[in-house]
Write a structure and sequence with these properties.
Elements lengths: L1 H14 L4 E3 L17 H8 L4 E7 L2 E12 L12 E9 L2 E9 L23 H8 L4 E4 L9 E11 L6 E11 L5 E10 L2
Antiparallel strand pairs: 1-3, 2-3, 3-4, 4-5, 5-6, 6-7, 7-8, 8-9
């Protein structure tokens, strides 16, 4: 889950800037970048140069991370006093895409979700269709080694926001990763929520 939290922190940090940070970008359409097939070069060709890159160790594997970030005090946020920002995070293992995740506090594409519904997910019983019914379309996906199961696939839901002044900034971050086996049954649930609304 580290990479999802790292991406969320980046949104909060970008929101600290007084005017604009990063370069605005368009989230790739579904199917344009494919987990397990697309490469870092494919992502760069579609998205341009990343705002930030880094390294991550997950499940004992060395991963590369690329973030695209944008914040603007002139945009319309999902909630009052929140600095609108968005991040697209990509993770690569052996130059192959293993995670893509979109996070936004802009009103038009907010990724906020209801964390109170997480206990409704039951490992070994709930299905991918039930998770979508609870939370809507996922804002990201991941495969091994970003998640534990080598043959599993995960839906990702993430949200981050920052509000207040530079000297009195309040942050909220939450991230949900729900893994499924080949039959679409839940095998793992990871949820983290921190900060003030």
């Amino acid at each position: 889950m580290k990479n999802r939290i790292f991406a969320s922190v980046l949104v909060a940090l970008a929101a600290l800037l007084s005017a604009c940070a990063g370069t605005d970008f368009v989230r790739p359409a579904e199917g344009v970048l494919v987990l397990g097939k697309s490469t870092q070069a494919d992502v760069t060709a579609k998205m341009g140069s990343p705002y930030q890159t880094g390294d991550l160790i997950k499940n004992e594997k060395q991963l590369k991370v690329a973030h695209y970030a944008y914040a603007s005090t002139g945009g319309e946020s999902a909630y009052p006093e929140v600095t609108p920002a968005r991040v697209m995070a990509f993770t690569f293992y052996n130059d192959t895409l293993t995670n893509q995740e979109f996070i936004s506090s802009f009103k038009q594409d907010s990724t906020d979700f209801d964390g109170s519904k997480v206990p409704s997910i039951v490992k070994g019983k709930s299905t991918s269709a039930e998770v979508i019914a609870l939370f809507g379309k996922p804002t990201g996906e991941a495969i091994y080694p970003v998640i534990k199961g080598m043959d599993d696939r995960a839906y990702i839901y993430s949200y981050s926001q920052a509000k207040g002044s530079v000297f009195n900034m309040k942050f909220q971050q939450k991230s949900l990763a729900v893994s499924f086996n080949g039959a679409g049954v839940v095998t793992d649930v990871e949820y983290v929520s921190t900060g003030d609304r």
